[in-house]
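Worked example 3. Consider a protein that binds zinc ion.
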Amino acid sequence: MWVRVLGSAAGGGFPQWNCACPPCRAVRDGSRPARPRTQSSIAVSPDRRRWFLLNASPDVHVQIESFPALHPADGSRGVPLETVLLTDAELDSTLGLLLLREGGGLVVHATEATREVLYDGTGLLRTLEAYCPVTWRPVLPGADVPLADGLTYRAFDVPTTKRARFGAGEAKGRVVGFRLTDERSGRALVHLPAVQDLTAVRDQLEDCSCLLVDGTCWSDDELIRLGLAGRTAREMGHLPIHGPGGSLEQLAALRIDRMVYIHMNNTNPILLENSPERRAVEQHGLEVAVDGMEIEV
Ligand SMILES: [Zn+2]
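Given these inputs, the predicted complex is written out as structure tokens:
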């Protein structure tokens, strides 16, 4: 299967429009090597013809334009993209659905908890339905679901204590990860852009060939130290990379061909290509996703 990183930054993108933290300043003024990034989303394909979107970011238009495989064929208005798998109901993961309203309709795979927020919380799916047909496919963690041509997925629950902004905050199914398997090769990709506790999902990572994993913050108190927020990374549902129990030391112990951090917040120093934090990540055998990155799994 093929994976295309459409966007690799957390909500707000890199740089973020209202932010002048050190990495945002550096990417704007070019004083340090760094590349701008759009908000996190990937496309996966079994054959490089049909593509499946994992999350629909607010940057979905520019992401489609930047990837010719997703362009409409001559004289048509159809793109090889009609199915979206959602890991959660966050605006960063779902706002792009509204921007796809001109199409012939969308198939949205989401848990009941996510569907509920998208109908009764943000109302986003309700709005979208006024423009185009929406088919909801319930995501049931643990169930194998065929997508196309030997490509299947299995979702798994990702426990989180992040406070829910909408709805009752039912914990189960609020955040899921996806394990996509190419049945022809037996190789699997795990997409896990939000995870607060890796030990809780470790079984799901066994034997996968490629892991795209939450790289939101370098340190737990990153946003507090910069005076940008009052909450730690963990309180926002993201395990930090660095420090005791951080993701870097845990991931470095796993035997996975390729491990790639994705969903980096703009404050994260690993975005600066000459930072010691970036070097530490690479020395542990991990990579940092960038928009346009392609991986054959
Ligand atoms: Zn910033």
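Take a moment to read the result before moving on. Residues 2-296 form a domain with the Metallo-beta-lactamase; Chain A fold (CATH 3.60.15.10). The chain has a mean pLDDT of 95.
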